[in-house]
Amino acid sequence: MDFKKIFEKHDDENIFIKTTAKFPIDSAQKAALNRKGNIFFNSGDIEAARRIFLTTGYSDGLSRIGDYYNSKGQTLDALRMYWVAPDKKKAEPIIIKLSEIIQDLLNND
Fold first, then answer.
1. CB neighbours of 70 closer than 8 A, spacing ≥ 6?
2. What is the CATH code for 27-108?
3. Among candidates 70, 36, 68, which has minimal Cα distance to 51?
4. Cut 0.90: pTM above it
5. How many CB atoms lie within 10 A of CB 74?
6. CA dist list (Å): 13 to 9, 44, 80, 88, 98
7. Nearest to 39 by CA among 27, 52, 26
């Protein structure tokens, strides 16, 4: 199965695919990028901040992005950010809520 072709179909959907490949980045570069991400976040450019925080693995930034998404009702996007952060304390209530919804759907059919 050619996974690359499968995912190329969804390039325009702005989805996140977790990979294990890490880019070599030293601590000074990481700190500079995180500062830039915080500037983007504080100015309202959430998507630019998200891309930077995903690149650097900045868990606090990812959690704040999750909080932003959650406040906008984008629960699944919030869960993705909490999961990658990882912020289990914030992810667990969403997972419980989703599992309850799925249980209700299964019981009603």
1. 78, 90, 94
2. 1.25.40.470
3. 36
4. no
5. 14
6. 9, 21, 15, 26, 22
7. 52
Which value, to the nearest 10 degrees, does the dihedral of the CA atoms of residues 98, 104, 108, 109 take? Answer: 40
pLDDT per position as a tens digit, 46-82: 999 999 999 999 999 999 999 999 999 999 999 999 9
Residue 93 CB partners (closer than 8 Å, separation 6+): none
Q: Angle 23-65-83 (CA atoms, 0-180°, nearest 5)?
A: 65
Q: Give me the residue spans of the domains in the chain.
A: 27-108
Q: How far apart are CA 37 and CA 33, in angstroms?
A: 6
Residue 45's nearest CA partner among 35, 37, 54, 57 is: 37
